[in-house]
Each structure stands twice: as C-alpha cells, then as structure tokens.
Amino acid sequence: MAPDFLGYMLAIGLCCMSLLITHSRDDLILAAVVSAGGNFVYIAGKLPVTAMAGFIGNLQLIIFLGILYVVAADELIDSHLIVLNERVSQVMRVLLLPSYVGITLLAIFMIIP
To answer: Is the pTM of this model over 0.85?
Structure first.
C-alpha cells in the first residue's frame, strides 16, 4: 500500500506545484489527475469492492475533490476575478495554496480510523 499513498502524495504535490508555477499549469494538473486515477485503478484491482467504500474510497474522493478545487479556483482567479479587481485576485492567489493544503490535510486527518 505504500506506493499507492506515495502516488496520492504525488498528486497532492503536483497540485501544489501547479499553484506555485504561473505558466503551463495545465500539464501539472493533468499529471495529478492521471496519478490519482492510476492509483485508484491499482488499488481497486488489489482490494475487494467493499474496501473501496472505506478509508481508501474516502481518500480517493478527497484527492479528486482537491484537484477539482485547484482547477476551479485557479480558473476563477485567472479568468474572472482579475477582471473585477487585480488586488483581490492577487490576495486570493496567495491564499489558494495554503487553503488547498490545509483543507486536504484536515480531510485526510478526519478519515483516519
């Protein structure tokens, strides 16, 4: 199971990198989706179906929702908020990485048995 969790950490790390790098983020987000999806397929083949509804299923949901959060927030900041107010978009961009990491760690902590 250790390689699978390392794969999840890779997906989280790629999302963090995509928030730190200002150009060509789409490739990093796509890599995070592929990494998380590949781990899900590997774990689903190794564990019984009922196990996927427990801790591993919840962890997978957290990882995918985190990726969607990064994509949606980044798109809103880059496309919509910058048009309204550049200062607000700069503040939101600075707060996006800590909020993503904090929410992800809190959610993982909450599902630990």
So the answer is: no
Provide the 3-class DSSP secondary structure of residue 48.
coil
Cβ distance 98 to 73 under 8 Å? no
Q: Residues in the chain, how many? A: 113
> For all residues of the chain together, what is the average pLDDT?
75
Q: Could you give the C-alpha distances from 95 to 99, 101, 108, in angstroms and in order?
A: 6, 10, 20
Residue with tokens 């427990």: 54
Apex CA 37: angle with CA 35 and CA 39, to 5°?
A: 70
Check residue 28 and report its DSSP letter: H
Cα separation, 81 vs 89, whole angstroms: 6
| pLDDT, tens digit, 9 for 90 and up, residues 17-52 | 777 776 666 666 777 777 777 666 666 666 666 655
Spatial separation of the C-alpha atoms in residues 69 and 89, rounded to whole Å? 16
